[in-house]
Design goal:
Length: 575
């Protein structure tokens, strides 16, 4: 009996060891397979991914469960069902943990995919590849050489553009030429800088070793290095298309020579002659008084706030007559005012976590543009939008909780999301305008317009029924759970830019100069203003929609007054 028991025990021990060995072998085989696949992906990424395969299209992204960046900007599509419940007092259903987990998971996948794409493309090209890279790609102008690039003391300090996927030499040259700049400089394979003066410090040719993101075989600078191209031919061709904006007739300052840094006296002076002269000098304003042309910036001595159009300036639009010398004509040149374009991340983590909160379509991107240029610091975002990053909002790629940005954009309105912030600027816009702006963005991007067919489809009434209640709940919940709020109405900010911007900057505990605020006012539109208001030949809001929206407006107005804030502007209700 003992012998039989001993044999059974020996067999079980062998079986246990065999099972352990098989389990270990299985895990090792799986690990080797995973490492092999990872190595294959890295090798494919190092050889370069075609630009058209860098990121999946919206259809492919939806198939694999990855969110479109525009959809990631706001939780709208996933709130369509939840927002219907806003008509019932059940806030816990609107912000369910399941929805937050799903949305955050998709955002993490999108960020991770974009980050791997960005870091792999940032690797400098190997020397062997660089020797084969010639300046023979299709672009006009002359390659001027490789130069040092100091972000703090830039020589090409004009307009700046970014495009992480499609930057080419020709694209940069055309963008600079449209804004009256002679030179286009490219850095990091994706950044474009404009100016009329060549950088002083030349660098070795091999130090400009990064390939353009959107054009193989072209050099687009390197790390702290600029590949500079001239664009005189493009600049001359762009002159015909260039816009010179009439700013108005203003009383001339007492001493024009002290007020404006550059001047020109020219018989038979024309607007085009003065604008071209000031553009070459890189000034955003061209000022004409008789045969005199002056170039400069808006300043405290010449703020451009009180125009004199009317009887005093009758006939002053003719450059040969400037109302007896007491008034001058002011034009906006294509050159950008660069006194407020320098921006950076906070050097130390912010102790106060500030939100820039709004309903989608309420002007949050525009407010970020104003805040960044006024304070000189980047703003962050709860979401990631590659289109915004390409336009210069570098805080898009920074983690929203890094506290390296002056404030963080958010459209969230749940109790948990609100209480994460120490304070907030609450931006409110007329719901009629907000709904139309967000509908345009959803179906035509940041700068486009939805087609009439889309407006007349069932998408529009469904959108209004879901999003109108969200507009109201967003304000109500921030009023309820927000710890410290500054309420800014979009319409007031648009009408009284400087005073309202001062309020926002003081709320953010930043001190700025008057000239910087005037520079912001001179660059007030930014890169995300839709060109003109596309008029529709029909009324998009039905009477039923108006009745619904007006009830929400009255509710929000009452809530604001109950918290001792000013009520909604009169133009909101009733429509």
């Amino acid at each position: 009996m003992a012998k039989t028991f001993f044999r059974l025990q020996k067999f079980l021990r062998r079986t246990q060891f065999l099972l352990f060995f098989l389990t270990a072998a299985y895990l090792m085989a799986g690990s080797l397979l995973l490492l092999q696949r990872t190595r294959l992906v890295i090798q494919q990424g190092s050889h370069g991914t075609p630009s058209n395969q860098a990121l999946a299209g919206p259809e492919e992204m939806s198939r694999v469960g990855i969110m479109d960046p525009r959809a990631a900007q706001s939780p709208g599509p996933r709130l369509l069902v939840r927002m219907e419940a806003l008509q019932e007092p059940a806030p816990e259903q609107r912000h369910s943990p399941h929805w937050l987990t799903s949305r955050n998971s998709e955002l993490r996948q999108l960020r991770r995919r974009w980050f791997h794409r960005f870091t792999s493309d940032q690797e400098p090209l190997q020397t062997a590849a660089f020797t084969a890279m010639k300046h023979t790609a299709e672009h006009k102008g002359t390659y001027m050489g490789c130069f040092s690039h100091d972000s703090r003391e830039r020589t090409l300090k004009g307009a700046v553009f970014y495009d992480l996927r499609k930057m080419t030499v020709a694209h940069c040259q055309e963008a600079c030429a449209e804004r009256a700049y002679s030179y286009a400089g490219l850095a990091y394979g994706a950044e474009c800088y404009c100016g009329n003066t060549l950088p002083a410090a030349a660098a070795r040719p091999e130090e400009c070793n990064m390939e353009c993101k959107g054009q193989k075989g072209s050099v687009c600078g390197g790390v702290n290095r600029l590949s500079v191209y001239s664009g005189e031919q493009l600049r001359a061709a762009a002159t015909r298309r260039r816009n010179v904006i009439y700013r108005g007739c203003f009383r001339a300052p007492e001493n024009l020579t002290d007020t404006f840094p550059a001047s020109l006296i020219q018989p038979n002076l024309t607007v085009e002659m003065c604008s071209e002269f000031c553009s070459k000098k890189e000034f955003p304003l061209a000022v004409i008084r008789g045969q005199e042309c002056y170039c400069g910036f808006p300043t405290g001595r010449f703020p451009l706030r009180q125009g004199a159009d009317g009887p005093r300036c009758s006939g002053a639009r003719n450059a040969s007559s400037a109302a007896g010398g007491r008034y001058c004509l002011v034009y906006q040149t294509p050159v950008q005012d660069t006194r407020c374009t320098d921006r950076k991340f906070l050097t130390t983590k912010s102790k106060v976590f500030v939100a820039l909160s709004s309903f989608p379509g309420a002007g949050n991107t525009w407010a970020r543009h104003l805040i960044e240029h006024a304070t000189g610091y980047y703003t962050g975002s709860y979401y990631f939008d590659g289109a915004l990053y390409n336009k210069g909002f570098k805080g898009e790629k920074d983690h929203w909780r890094s506290r390296r940005t002056i404030c963080v954009k958010t459209h969230e309105s749940g109790k948990t999301e609100i209480e994460m912030f120490d304070s907030a600027i609450l931006l409110i816009r007329n719901p009629y305008k907000s709904l139309m702006a967000e509908f345009n963005r959803k179906y035509a991007g940041h700068l486009g317009y939805a087609t009439d067919r889309t407006w007349k489809s069932k998408e529009w009434p469904d959108f209004v029924n879901s999003y109108a209640s969200w507009w109201a709940s967003h304000v109500l919940e921030w009023l309820k759970y927000g710890k410290r709020l500054l309420v800014i109405h979009y319409e007031d900010l648009k009408q009284s830019l400087i005073p309202k911007l001062k309020e926002m900057v003081e709320f953010l505990n930043v001190t700025v100069t008057e000239d910087r605020l005037l520079c912001v006012e001179n660059n007030r539109d930014g890169n995300f203003k839709r060109s003109g208001a596309k008029q529709k030949n029909f009324e998009p809001f039905t009477q039923e929609m108006k009745d619904l929206i007006n009830r929400y407006i009255l509710t929000v107005d009452e809530a604001l007054r109950g918290r001792n804030f000013s009520g909604l502007p009169r133009e909101y209700v009733p429509r």
